[in-house]
Amino acid sequence: MAKNKIVIIGGGASGLVAAIVAARNGAKVTILERKDRIGKKILATGNGRCNLTNMHCSSKYFHGGDKDFITNILEQFDVNKTLEFFSELGIYPINVDSGKVYPNSLQASSVLDVLRLEVDRLKINIECNAEVTKIERSNNFVVYTKDKKYYGNKIIIAAGGKSSPDLGSNGSGFTLAKSLGHTIKKPIPSLVQLKSGADFLKQIKGVKINALAKIIDENNEIMRKEYGEILFTDYGISGPPILQISRIASDYLNDNKRVSVDIDFFHDLSEKELDQILLKRLTSMPNKTIQENFIGFINKRLINIIIKEAGIAMNKKSADIKKEERNKLVSILKKFSLIITGTNQWNQSQVTAGGIITSEIDEVTLESKKVKDVYLAGEVIDVDGDCGGYNLQWAWSSGVVAGMNASN
């Protein structure tokens, strides 16, 4: 007879590994998944390639919860244990770049397939289209869906956050945790595109540049900077550097504070060095207009906007550009500023910031301090990571820790 009968709410990354570990440990496990199949969000990770983890994983790449809390969970099931776990299931991991680890197939479906095969081998019961509406406890737990009841002596809430609701998580895990007495830090979108009201954005929709993005607070202090490919859209800005800094923007906007992004088109040059390069261009091509001069210097679709922002006439000859105007051009090229007015919605965000506060969860076992025999895992906890495999590592680590302790 099974030691424990565990009901896991959520069939995503953390719920699946929790189920596998618990079943291996002798528990009888049922997964309740609100969508028509398990693991939908896994299929979307890493642009469909599934960025399993990151070799540089540590608490410094995570936000929200207490750093010691995060470290305790990550150390119990670290990157090496994660790679061993998936290797035993059949995944051949490769390190692609910047520490990012993918399956050699470069298919997220491979990761979900091996998890499903293990779930089947362990005879874990999966109930899809089963959104949980209520949890009650007498001697054991009673978990209610719209038309059924499920019984267990242990519960794991791994229902995710609010990001990508079409893939599974819709915030219901927060509602359930709150009904059990937990405090929820307001969820906000993270790893998400940023909006701006700049009137020139429609003109440069689709332009991609490699540049340095700096997020600036209301005191003009740099809070974080990231380099990489930035994409201009009709509503604002996107691309990996923007996603990385988006959590800070989301936090500030949630507190009704001013926040902006400065883009440095020539991050590897000082203002003095850039001024010398610009001066040489102007003097070597004196008969070209400033508009013509900038062709081949910056993206063609950005030329008119940069010149207009500097207050210079498009047809002004390079030879006639004054030092003050040149300084203005240099300043804009080094600090192209966009006031951020919002973020894209939940269906565009990759992860949720906020959730169940970590002080109400045991930092070793992930058992609720509010209700005995209830465990928490994954995105439902107030822990979120940077891009690059960190959020999946949190899902694997917290899922394993919750599954192991719930089944002991």
From TrEMBL:
Residues 5-404 form the RsdA/BaiN/AoA(So)-like Rossmann fold-like domain. It comes from the Bacteria. Pfam families: HI0933_like, HI0933_like_1st. Its cofactor is FAD. Keywords: FAD, Flavoprotein. InterPro entries: BaiN-like, BaiN-like_dom_sf, FAD/NAD-bd_sf, RsdA/BaiN/AoA(So)-like_dom, RsdA/BaiN/AoA(So)_Rossmann. Residues 189-351 form the RsdA/BaiN/AoA(So)-like insert domain. The keyword Chloroplast does not apply. PANTHER family: OS12G0638800 PROTEIN. This is NAD(P)/FAD-dependent oxidoreductase. It comes from Vallitalea guaymasensis.
